[in-house]
Amino acid sequence: MSDHTRTSPRVAASVAIGSLLTLSLAACGGESQGAQPVGQASDKVITVYSGRSRPLVRPVLDGFEKVSGITVEVRYGDTAAMAAQLQEEGSRTPADVFLAQDAGALGALAGEDLFAALPDEVLDKVPAAYRDEDGQWVGVTGRSRTMVYNVDQVAEDDLPESVFELTEPEWKGKVGIAPTNGSFQAFITAMRAEHGDERTQDFLDGLKANDAQIREGNAPIVADVDRGRLATGLVNHYYVYELAKEKGTSVDALKAKNYFFPDGDIGALVNVSGVGVMEGAGDDPDARDLVDYLLGRQAQTYFAQETYEYPLVAGVSSARGLPQLSSLNTPDIDLNDLDDLQTTVEMIRESGLA
Amino acid sequence: MAVVRRRVRRLMPRPALAVAAVASVAVALIPLTYLGVRVGDAGWARISEELFRARTGELAARSLALAGVVTTACTALGVASAFLVTRTDLPARRLFGVLATLPLAVPSYVAAFAWVSTVEGFEGFWAAALVLTLVSYPYVFLPVAAALTSADPAQEEVARSLGSGPWRTFITVTLRQIRPAVAAGALLVALYVLSDFGAVSVLRADVFTRAVFTSISLGFDRTVALVLATVLVALTVLIVSGEQLTRRCAARYARLGGAGRPPARLRLGRLRWLVVPGLVGMAGLALGVPAASLARWFGEGVSRPGSLTGLATAAGNSLTVSAAGAGLTLLLALPLGLLGARAPGTVAAVLDRLAYLSHALPGLVIGLSLVFFGINVAYPLYQSVWLLALAYAALFLPLAVAAVGSAALQAPPALEEVARSLGRRRSHVLRTVTVPLAAPGIGAGAVLVFLTCMKELPATLLLRPTGMDTLATELWSRTSVSAYAAAAPYAALLVLLAAVPTWWLSARTGVLTQAVQGGGS
């Protein structure tokens, strides 16, 4: 029993329908059809494991189905649980493509060689900072870490210059964090890369000693800041937009506001959601088409306008009210350096925050 | 040869049944095999590093404490409300009987969300204890109410005639009669609390299941999660053996001959002014808070669920997977329950206890273990409804075994013996006598499993067929992007659909049909 069990129906299909299908696909295909290997014929069906939930992703996939004529079967789930599932499934996974909420999950799967390498012409659409150096996965959207604050409780002049100031007495009990959340964890890993383990452990211990308020995720932090139950919190930038959308108002009407730490402070780390093609689907043109579509103008514009994330492909602008990603003074961190999650986990547990 | 066969007979009186029961238990233990394999891979150094840290001890202590507090509270509330509803002249008894059962239809995560969004700063150990008590006291109420309605009133009458007062009679006679029902309900509550993830994660109670999930999302590390899960299994063994001890000193009290008579009812008198508001208050906390909160979600947000068809499809899927789960669970439970009732002994007792071991494992661990099983052993079943049904069976087998066992106990074995003596084969007797007699009880077990499957989330997320969404997964999908208003209809429909079988369960206890028979003395 090997991976061939999975591909054999496809091979059979290719024998049956032969090159006709490949030709017709090449005729109607997208931007980079010419360059792709003809190892496998298109069967017009792919299976996507999505660590991002249906309301965020389905509209994009609907657009893809319409353009490509490929049927997308999707499993929605939690990114971490889904990464664990993919690890258990190994080479026999029914998945062709994995869409993940954060780079950490993609890195964990890349570390077990579960992805097929993507060709350079796909990778080159995205700045080098937002993809895997071995080409196992590529970023689709960017999200910035920010400090959300309640305008009634924190004056603009009192906002800290650096995230490290949050361990000082004036912020005691006033900072909400979500230590079990992937984006917090990536942020801490970046801090270790930039400032070393010792300073990072001091920061974590400092947060604990300063009575940091713990929540399960970013959304509850932003909701509590808006309601005035919390003064500030460390979250991703788009949660205020989600909250405004749910309340049917604009972000300007909220009490909760985003603050981007200035001068390349690590508190303004930019992380990605991204996509990887599973090993067994490396030659599947349909999977490749989906990756191309996600990095195309239509999908990038959707993510920018509807989920308020940063588009990663040149020429697509951010949502109104958001700075362009390139204009942000973000810390100079290579996401490829964020692969040592194990130590980060140990340190977070050490501090008593999780 | 004959000697050997006789020996085997003595050791194992019903070999065919026993073999089937062993097969059922083997299925229920698939997750433990997986745990063994994966934890073994980790190596002893890693295991001991995770096991012997102060935090593991703390978590174990806190999980046990939570299970203890919730079980005690559920036992008190469950027994008290069952007694009030079945044995007193409480006004609107039928209504209160239904109200005491309905919390079973509310998933713990929905209740927890409701409380968090209603009460400021509602979190931690005691918050989780309150919510878990409110959603799980029906596990005690149901069996106890059934036991109270069917218990033989003659024994109480004897005690009363010998001069015991009503309360003394309750404590010395009635409580002893219903002790097996109380213990069975309490065991289910304790194990449920150990395995629950919904309430403890929303309310941030730092217990074992939460640590298991956290270590999967922190660093995508299965090993720590699985090592921690083995501790949960150890805690389960502890609790299950504890319950076994209480069982040993309990005898069985069966009604002998004659049709059932309704027991005499105590007059509450002025006490009713205390009791009625108490019961109303409890129903308000367990049902009113979630209802009000769902209504508020819907009113405050502007997100809307997809189409009505989407809602209907999800509901249909929920019903399908739950029906498959309940069917398979029942099939596996039948030999176990019958063996326990008809051939009690060491073999039956050990098998029965083993069936409980997976019950306290978090759904995520069960899910991952069946991913492993599906990929490596049963690939054709992978991501089919049947593998999900298998997960439900591993999780909820004890619920069905208990129901089958008690139903078979109530069906008099004499009828089977008559059929046997007239030359019928065992299998024929099973089909034509035993199962029809025990059918209502078996049905109750199936219904209980069915509605528990509807509420299950983590294993469903991992194992459902690709593209198939249920009410629970749709609800999860929307709350994770904070579209609470869009989530509300899914939550409401889930609770409403689960309420139908729940109502049927409360009707079964007899509280709805029982005639009132005079006053207390």
Tell me the number of helical segments of chain B per DSSP (H or I, 4 or more residues long): 24
- The computed structural class of chain B is mainly alpha
User: How much of the sequence of chain B is in beta strands?
Assistant: under 5%
Task: Please tell me the overall pLDDT of chain B.
Answer: 83
The count of strands of chain B amounts to 0
* Elements of chain B, N to C (H/E): HHHHHHHHHHHHHHHHHHHHHHHH
Biggest interface, and residues per chain?
A-B, 52 and 47 residues
Instruction: Give the CA-CA distance, first to last residue of chain A.
Output: 41 Å
- The low-pLDDT segments of chain B are 253-259, 515-521
How many E-type strands of chain A?
11
Low-confidence stretches of chain A: 1-38
* Helix content, binned percent of chain B: over 70%
Main sheet summary of chain B:
none
- Kindly name the structural category of chain A: alpha/beta
Strand content of chain A: 15-25%
Which sequence of SSEs, written as H and E, runs from N to C of chain A? HHEHEHEHEHEEHHEHEHEEHHEH
Q: Could you walk me through the main structural features you see in this protein, from its secondary elements to its overall organization?
A:
The complex is a heterodimer of chains A (354) and B (521). Chain A has 354 residues and is α/β, with parallel strands linked by helices. Chain A is built from 13 helices and eleven strands. In chain A, strands 1, 2, 3, 4, 5, 6, 7, 8, 9, 10 and 11 form an eleven-stranded mixed beta sheet that branches. Chain B is globular and about 60 Å long. The chains are: A alpha/beta (354), B mainly alpha (521).
Topology (SSEs and partners):
The complex is a heterodimer of chains A (354) and B (521).
Chain A: H1 4-17, H2 19-28, E1 45-50, H3 54-68, E2 71-76, H4 79-89, E3 97-100, H5 103-111, E4 115-116, H6 120-123, E5 137-150, E6 175-177, H7 182-195, H8 197-209, E7 213-214, H9 218-227, E8 232-236, H10 239-247, E9 256-259, E10 270-278, H11 285-294, H12 297-306, E11 310-311, H13 341-351
Parallel strand pairs in A: 1-2, 1-3, 6-7, 6-8
Antiparallel strand pairs in A: 3-10, 4-10, 5-8, 5-9, 5-10, 5-11
Chain B: H1 2-11, H2 15-28, H3 30-42, H4 44-51, H5 54-87, H6 93-101, H7 108-118, H8 125-136, H9 138-150, H10 153-161, H11 166-195, H12 198-202, H13 208-217, H14 222-248, H15 272-300, H16 308-342, H17 346-355, H18 363-376, H19 385-410, H20 413-421, H21 426-455, H22 458-463, H23 471-479, H24 484-508
